[in-house]
Amino acid sequence: MARRTENKDDNRILVHTCRNGEIVQNCVTRKAYQALDPYDVDFHCDLVSGRYVIRTQDGRQLDYAVSMPGIGENAFRLLEELMWRPGEMRSRIQLAKGTGNPVLVRPNCLAGCLSRLRHVFGETGLSPYFFLTRRHPFAICWNAERSWRFIEWPAEVLEE
Q: Which of 53, 59, 119, 120 could form a disulfide with 44 if both were Cys (CB 3.0 to 4.6 A apart)?
């Protein structure tokens, strides 16, 4: 498990924000990080504090501390892979390669991960909001119309 080291840069936090399919990366101070509004994006993923905020299709705000319920490592890796390529349809093989997880090639495993993600994000396959799918050939993408923010410690601040 990575842990923070104490150095002059440890008050810097990496913030990635996606709006309208465009991803912007900023390294901000702790004060600027604390001023961020988790409710101004559709999905707020904060790995620094462990807070996840989701604005559902019907306008509800789902606020999770520490982790999102029912989301295991496979589903979280799938979520990350889709988020970093908003609007880009990804096949099972592309997702398996992108996540480094070969089990996602199996339709049942991928369907299970997508089902768990949809449940946590408050959507269904009949009314997709965050995750768009195509049947033939099967592919999934993050809806580029949905905004997100991903917050993490910069890599140079982490020590194994």
A: 53
